[in-house]
């Protein structure tokens, strides 16, 4: 049996790179992207990182620093990022037969069993080159026999510029050399709490974790950590998944076993992805405000006409209610669906997350309200409307205006709105 | 000049256009002939590589002799390698510009309007090409 081989492709400074792509005047300038309330820094360009601007910092704390270095700040433009993500991911699908979209800016490629006429490093370089050329987004590629090692290989590719952004970690000696250099908390799935406990056992580096006895680890930690130990030793225990376990956004998608040509079937598939994604969202105890639906034909078929499209929508207020997202997804699908294509893949992405209670919900969109009380609320609303129209109008207007103010640094929807295309002179 | 009617489109590029098997004279499609055989899709015609294709809008008249006018939408394909003579979108001086690429006798971006000067990269300066223009979309009737 052939050895498993995975590649992790990760976009460099994704949100900031999306913003820069359409602003040649910002090519060498530091750029940051702000969270949904323009409150915190959630993405930084290479130049901004060099200035020492940290992730997650509230804007008011670094306002002077931003001003001093002429840092350009953007509100998060999820319509743009989702479209660019979809371009990167479908480009990757032309390069490898099995792709797991792991987050908005990361994907695992399963290269197992592929016959490479070129070596893996060359393959990685060509992936990097093609994604850059086609989409304008720069990526790093880490290649290894397990997903956990591929993650670390990618980390190495990002950290050390000498690598040229591509690291092939299929060689055992290279694996051990790299693991010895990395602290244990750099390992995929090893968080803060776990790191502390491991350190108490004298496990500080990734290599020490790799060399730990798997049985001991299972008894004292969990099967999950045991799996990590095996993965660090090049034994693949985590296969490609259809649903990406991440907290920045949730993506649920799958390549269809057979091509879909019927809209009803597509509705069913999208509904299924929505319900899985929303379930995941509730498990993470998060609310999402942004929904993307995408579908595409097979990039490998010469017979099929190519079609690849995505649409996004922003809810009035964040929700985790399956019904809410389902209704919106069907609207988006109506706009996306074109008869006559043989669809190979579709999926949904939830993004722009909020902790419950952080966002002031509108009167109609409390996600925990049940259907009956929803109706009661509607009736109450109708009654109030006829008597005190002004008051009701004021309340809803207020929340919308507040929202508008908090995205004052929003860039145009360069790729998803005819009225906001980039200008060429 | 004659035109052959091939179908109706209400909006582009979202909708496929019904393709009529029997071509008819412009303006008078017979009800008997409206058997829809398949659909024509402008995406198919204009977009070879959807993942690498971007739309941009033209501002200015530097390319009028190449048939590119103010307000036109350009279909730009990043996956195509730019060759001598191609119309390209490039980043020059911090903004996007559409010009004709000349690689010989020397590298430059050629405007197609005598009122404009060619753009030559200075020594050691790289030409930053965003993509190759494959199609021009112009609205002929404004609502």
In words, what does this structure look like?
- The complex is a heterodimer of chains A (425) and B (143).
- Chain A is α+β, with helices and mostly antiparallel strands and 425 residues long.
- Chain A folds into 3 domains: 1-170 and 389-425, 2-Layer Sandwich (Alpha-Beta Plaits), CATH 3.30.70.270; 171-241, 5' to 3' exonuclease, C-terminal subdomain (DNA polymerase, domain 1), CATH 1.10.150.20; 250-368, DNA polymerase, Y-family, little finger domain (Dna Ligase, domain 1).
- Helix content of chain A is 43%, strand content 20%.
- In chain A, helix 12 (263-283) runs antiparallel to helix 13 (322-336) and helix 14 (371-387) packs across helix 15.
- Chain A is globular and about 55 Å long.
- By secondary structure, chain B is mainly beta.
- Chain B has 2 domains: 4-46, no CATH class; 50-137, Umud Fragment, subunit A.
- Helices cover 3% and strands 36% of the residues of chain B.
- Chain B has one helix at residues 42-46, and strands spanning 4-5, 17-20, 24-25, 36-40, 53-58, 73-77, 87-92, 95-102, 108-110, 128-137.
- Chain B has a 6-stranded antiparallel β-sheet, with no helix packed on it. In chain B, strands 1-3 form a two-stranded antiparallel sheet.
- In chain B, a hairpin with a 5-residue loop joins strand 8 and strand 9 (108-110).
- The model of chain B is unreliable at 7-25 and 27-34 (pLDDT under 50).
- Chain A binds chain B through residues 24-25, 27, 86-88, 90-91, 94, 133-136, 296, 305-309, 335, 338-340, 414-415, 418, 421-425, and chain B through 14-16, 38-39, 41, 43-44, 47-52, 54-60, 62, 73-74, 78-79, 89, 91-92, 94-98, 128, 130.
- Strand 13 of chain A pairs parallel with strand 5 (53-58) of chain B, so a sheet runs across the interface.
- Chain B: It comes from Rheinheimera pacifica.
